[in-house]
Amino acid sequence: MTPEPRRSRVAYFSMEIALEPTVPTYSGGLGILAGDTLRSAADLGIPVVAVSLLHRKGYFRQLLDQQGNQSERPAAWSPEQLLEPMRPSVAVTIAGRQVRLRAWRYLIQGVTGYVVPVYLLDTAIPENTAFDQSLTDHLYGGDAYYRLCQEVILGMGGVEILPRLGHHHISSYHMNEGHSALLSLALVAQRLGGRPLLSANESDLGVIRHRCVFTTHTPVPAGHDQFPLDLVRSVLGVERTRALEQMGACLGGVLNMTHLALHASRYINGVAMRHGEVSRSMFPQYPIRAISNGVHAATWTAGPFQRLYDSHIPEWRMDNLYLRYAIGIPLAEIRQAHMQAKEALIKEVLRRTGRKLEQGVMTIGCARRAATYKRADLIFRNRDRLKWIARNAGGLQIVFGGKAHPQDQGGKELIRRVIDHARAVEDAIQAVYLEDFDWQWAPLLYSGVDLWLNTPKRPQEASGTSGMKAALNGVPSLSIMDGWWVEGCLEGTTGWPIADRPGSAEDEAYEAGSLYHKLERTILPMFYGDPDAYARVMRGAIAVNGSFFNTQRMVSQYLANAWFREEEGEVAAKDPPVPAISP
Ligand SMILES: *Cc1c(COP(=O)(O)O)cnc(C)c1O
Question: Per-residue pLDDT for 410 more than 80?
Fold first, then answer.
């Protein structure tokens, strides 16, 4: 089925979108979430169109040496083989140059055949300079200048090209993180229709605001894109920079993309209830709500569990809420499906690393972007205690994975530390670090381990989604009470919390102590001593969390709360007051 552009009402902008396992247009959680959102929008038949960049050279493939030093090689791919080139092109002005761009189309087909088009913008057009042609090559590559140019292409180029592709009736522009915030500036220009940008008044900006939605994803201030005003002036010119100042986006000599998006949006949300609270305390002048993240259920459920759900809950793909009824699946069948998933993981680990994991041994999974705040090494805080537990409670294996951003020295150091620790506990615990952990590894790992571990530093985990993928495969979590786990943790029913010392922001020794205590006293004795009880927790994870932490529920909430609210004429009456446009 080909999409009908005239119907598209929501334009979803994201710097990264994970489309397929072998297409390297994403770096981690943000891109996977964007892809899952669009997959669910297609399943639900919601008229959404998406915009991102082509990333012709991809993110990168990770190589690890014996010591755990990461090196990177390009992850090239062939857009020509997977995407359809679109004819129209538009130009954006960057540093006084006219940069031409065009789009490639990828179609996401939902369960009932409804199609959501995704447009990946590309500047590799002969009339552009060599440098401009490279602007859509690297995801999160280059310097601040390169990055700002990319954000002009994404936000402003995206708004320009949509009508040329037939999408004339967009009522909501959704910014997935601040990278695309310049779309608001393009909408102002579009509304003024040739009048000078600086003539925009409050009512013009009010109209723009009623069309914009913003999802913020990080509670870490350093995670918010900022550009020095000198750089902004050189890329966007004096007039557009002045307009951004008027729009309240420039503070302390920098353009802050988060502030621009906050100021330009009618509906703003964080990605978990706790993250909403944290974001409100960071930006108290804005009405920030929260819609908790989810994952695309059919994508992240491994084969053995897909077959199990197909036989017991045939409608789960159409309506993920039915996963609630997993509570009636016999425990023996849950265990059987899990055994198959675990076998598949063990086989692939052996093939790819030469390491032989044991089927009967409790296996912990811990893989995600290697960023320092994720603290993948917390479990090794007291190695002797960990070894003692492994020896006395029945055995332990751990599978790690994750890439560090090429410029993130702290993240790279974290990988080295984990690999170092793994070697140091070798006599008691098998610990493996998977090279180049990505979407191709992920479903095997999320379904094949017995316990998912997440140990971020509070309150920096906005949501986290890997534990949700584990839950869909009947894998309980043991995690820090942050992000989604604050909502998803029912102790002993869906998994276990790692306790934090009340009132203290961070007490690593205390948190590690709680982790060991839970493993030693509760989890390992249950796993080895009472397999039925453990399988009941596995089943609880599916029924309670799989049925809720999916993008079908999440997209339905965006639909009800953010995307089409304006049309219902309820916005002014129900929403909290929005902040003034200019000082
Ligand atoms: C889900 C996923 C992530 C994100 O995991 P978080 O727990 O949200 O950090 C990263 N990489 C891959 C390959 C994933 O599948």
Answer: yes
Most distant CA pair in the chain: distance in Å?
75
Q: Which atom from ligand 1 is nearest to the alpha carbon of 464? A: 8
Cα 269 to ligand 1 centre (Å): 20
Superfamily grouping for domain 10-63+71-223+264-293+559-563: Glycogen Phosphorylase B; (3.40.50.2000)
Contact 527, 475 (CB under 8 A): no
CA separation for the pair 7, 9 (Å, rounded):
6
How remote is the CA of residue 29 from the centroid of ligand 1, in Å? 4
Mean pLDDT score across all residues of the chain: 94
Q: How far apart are CA 466 and CA 446, in angstroms?
A: 7
Atom of ligand 1 nearest to the CA of 454: 7
Predicted confidence (pLDDT) per residue in 7-21, tens digit: 779 999 999 999 999
Structurally, at CATH architecture level, domain 297-549 sits in 3-Layer(aba) Sandwich (3.40)
Smallest CA-to-CA distance from 480 within 522, 517, 511, 446 is with 511
CB 464 within 8 A of CB 485: yes
Q: Which residues line ligand 1 (CB under 6 A)?
A: 28-29, 32, 368-369, 438-439, 442, 464-466, 469
Model confidence over 370-385: pLDDT tens digits? 999 999 999 999 999 9
Distance in Å, CA 545 to ligand 1 centroid: 17
Q: What are phi and psi of 526, to 5 degrees?
A: -70, -45
Token pair for 527: 């796993």
Q: What atom of ligand 1 comes closest to residue 441's alpha carbon?
A: 13
**237 Cβ contact partners less than 8 Å away, ≥ 6 residues apart:** 93, 96
Pairing of strands 70-73, 61-64: antiparallel
**Ligand 1 site-directed mutation target among 23, 369, 452, most atoms within 8 Å of CB:** 369
Please give the pLDDT value at position 487.
Answer: 98
The gap from C-alpha 300 to its chain's centroid, in whole angstroms, comes to 14
Query: What does the domain layout of the chain look like in residue ranges?
Result: 10-63+71-223+264-293+559-563, 297-549
Task: Provide the b/e sequence for 28-64 (b: ≥16 CB within 10 Å).
Answer: bbbbbbbbbbbbbbbbbebbbbbbbbbbbbbbbbbeb
Q: How far is the CA of 468 from the centre of ligand 1 (A)?
A: 10
Give the list of residues 6+ apart from residue 473 with CB closer than 8 angstroms, or none: 300, 301, 302, 305, 338, 341, 446, 447, 542
Q: How far is the CA of 431 from the centre of ligand 1 (A)?
A: 20
Q: How large is the average pLDDT for residues 312-319?
A: 97
